[in-house]
Amino acid sequence: PPFFVVVFIIFLLGGPFLARGRVVATAFTTNGKSLLRALPGRPTSSATPVESKTDRTMNEDSSPSSSGGDCQREWDWRAGQDQALSHAILPLSETSHKGSSGRIAVLGGCAQYTGAPYYAAMASLQTGADLALVWTAQEATGPIKGYSPELMVSAVYGAAEMDAAQKERQRLQEQQQEQSTQKEDSDLTAQISANDQLCQSLIHEMVQTVVAQLDRIHCLIVGPGLGRCPLVGEAVHQILVTATTRALPVIVDADALFALSQLSRSQLQALFSNRSRIVLTPNAVEYQRLMAAAGDDEESSPSSSNVFHHAVMVRKQRFDAIEYQGQTMYTCWEPGGLKRSGGIGDVLAGTLGTLVAWNSLLHPNDPKDHLPLSCWTACCFVKRATARAFAEKHRAMTAPDVLQELGPAIYEMTESTE
Asked: What is the DSSP pairing of strand 71-75 with strand 103-107?
């Protein structure tokens, strides 16, 4: 009959095209439900460890370092779970006391951005830290305190004063440039001198307020919602110098990364010359800025100039990459949700803060022992939390939904340690 002839012709013509079509599906379990998401280009299912549970040794063509000889671990959670539970997760104990699971401080927030430091600080608590402090602008303290009674919020600078001093500095500089070809104005010179003294006084006050509290904490997260006032950026630079000199673990995120990108190459080299636990969390744009500040192009590896050689770089992308000393040490293939809501990066910063604090508690005598593994673990936790939140809320998912799922996701992934 003609019907079967037509079907046979369609089969002959369409078969080769269908055979060449390729959709890679990733299935994972969320709240006991099977969630199927199409992820084009993924070579294997996330339910199966990439190259089982062994390291995937990179060949010379794919290695990010010309030296080669190192291993890249391209893992989802199942592939790296045993390593993480052994070396990155701080065990609970009956002898624990308040603060023994981590005291985390977030230096961030300003009058315009109060949500980011809240997300970071709350994520550190949801991950397992005992105490979370927020050091922020005077104008941001009220809103952040109103978000949650769990956070210890204090003002370390006044945003209005900083902004006003910076605007006056810019005005005087422009006026000085206009009069550069004219006779020197003694009144203008006096105004510039007075403004410089005011700016340095405000910077010094902020630095001293923060530095005085550094001994209280296990990890400092700098950047969420901080804003881009140049005076605050100068203060952040001085705080980072002090923190790294004291070997305090630091997470540099968001606006603090922008502040780093405004430093000279020599300033960056001095800041990253020691072997302190410093973790940078750039997205694609922030990474390009850092490479430009270091004198490299965007295709360079972080260690090509040795500026960031001693820092761990968490490159936020579809599959987060953990880089250290020019090597991509880990790639996080744990699947997340499909919604990219604002605030998820802040949640990751807070989760990293707790994991990096635990790293310093578990390995106090080895500054970088298992630190890249700890960062990979944090990425897996947040990816799983976003997957759970997306399964529940789909397009309506926002950062608070991810924050709500973070604790249950971590318990689901680490319950064998309980």
From this structure: unpaired
**3-state secondary structure labels for all residues of the chain:** CHHHHHHHHHHHHHHHHHHHCCCCEEEEEECCEEEEEECCCCCCCCCCCCCCCCCEECCCCCCCCCCCCCEEEEECHHHHHHHHHHHCCCCCCCCCCCCCCCEEEEECCCCCCCHHHHHHHHHHHHHCCCEEEEEEEHHHHHHHHHHCCCCEEEEEECHHHHHHHHHHHHHHHHHHHHCCCCCCCHHHHHHHHHHHHHHHHHHHHHHHHHHCCHHHCCEEEECCCCCCCHHHHHHHHHHHHHHHHCCCCEEECCHHHHHHHCCCHHHHHHHCCCCCCEEECCCHHHHHHHHHHCCCCCCCCCCCCCCCCCCEEEECCCCCEEEECCEEEEEECCCCCCCCCCCHHHHHHHHHHHHHHHHHHHCCCCCCCCHHHHHHHHHHHHHHHHHHHHHHHHHHCCHHHHHHHHHHHHHHHHHHHC
Q: Please report how the helices 115-127 and 344-362 are oriented relative to each other, as an axis angle in degrees rounded to 10.
A: 40
C-alpha to C-alpha distance for 401 and 287, rounded to whole angstroms: 28
Give CA 343 to chain center in angstroms: 11
- Enumerate residues 6+ apart whose C-beta is below 8 A from 96: none
The tens digit of pLDDT for each residue in 253-294 reads: 999 999 999 999 999 999 998 778 999 999 999 999 999 999
Spatial separation of the C-alpha atoms in residues 236 and 225, rounded to whole Å: 13
In sequence order, the 6+-apart residues with CB closer than 8 A to the CB of 190 are: none
- Beta carbons of 406 and 379 less than 8 angstroms apart: no
Do residues 388 and 30 make contact, with C-beta atoms less than 8 angstroms apart? yes
Task: Output the pTM of the full model.
Answer: 0.82
What tokens does 87 get?
Answer: 């070396």
- One-letter amino acid of 233: G
The angle subtended at Cα 311 by Cα 308 and Cα 313, nearest 5°, is 90
Q: How far, in Å, CA of 300 to CA of 66, rounded? A: 12
Question: Identity (one letter) of the amino acid at 251?
Answer: I
Look at the chain and count its residues.
418
What does the block give as tokens for 306?
A: 């040795």
Chain segment 3-61, per-residue pLDDT in tens: 555 555 555 555 544 443 433 333 333 443 333 333 333 333 333 333 333 333 333 33
